[in-house]
Amino acid sequence: MTLELRSGLARIQGAAPAPSEEIGLLRRRAFVERGVAMIELSDVVDPWTKQAVINEARRQLERKAEVTVPAPAAPAPATAPRRRPRR
Q: Is residue 7 part of a domain?
């Protein structure tokens, strides 16, 4: 039998962080199934490689942000009042 403690804050508290073993499995699965590499910068020891990973991530994420974030709508141009046609 498991004892589960609940409080008024439980609904906004969020889930507990996943253990590092579970994160490792998720990283492997993402790479094998989707070709997505999730690299923790703290795992990269070579400074040149670390900077290359940072640069590539910034390049790709900034490009995607430009595509997915719509630009603010431009205000409608002011138009002159319409004249009624002569008869």
A: no
